[in-house]
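W.,

You were right to be curious about this one. When I first looked at the sequence I had no strong expectations either way, so I just let the prediction run and decided to look at it fresh. Below is the sequence, 81 residues in total, followed by the output.
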Amino acid sequence: MPTIHLINSIKIDMYAREHLPPHFHAIYAEYEILIEVQNLQTYAGYFPSKVYKQVIDWASSPSIQKFLMHNFNQLDPHLRK
């Protein structure tokens, strides 16, 4: 599972051999959350609201959305949408 980005102490990870929908994992202290790339909805998990906002603010950029989809497709080419 490569860490593809760090936001302060928040790790943004993507796993190989994943599942749909395209998503990323954000990890902060004892918290982990899975967020869908295309609509930024929480798929699973929980984050404190202040930390969650930092992740969503970062991920909402169109260039970051493209970056996230590219990484998901590279790690899981059989799941390309």
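Here's what jumped out at me. The longest strand covers residues 23-28. And, maybe more interesting for your project: The mean pLDDT is 91.

Coffee later to discuss?

I.
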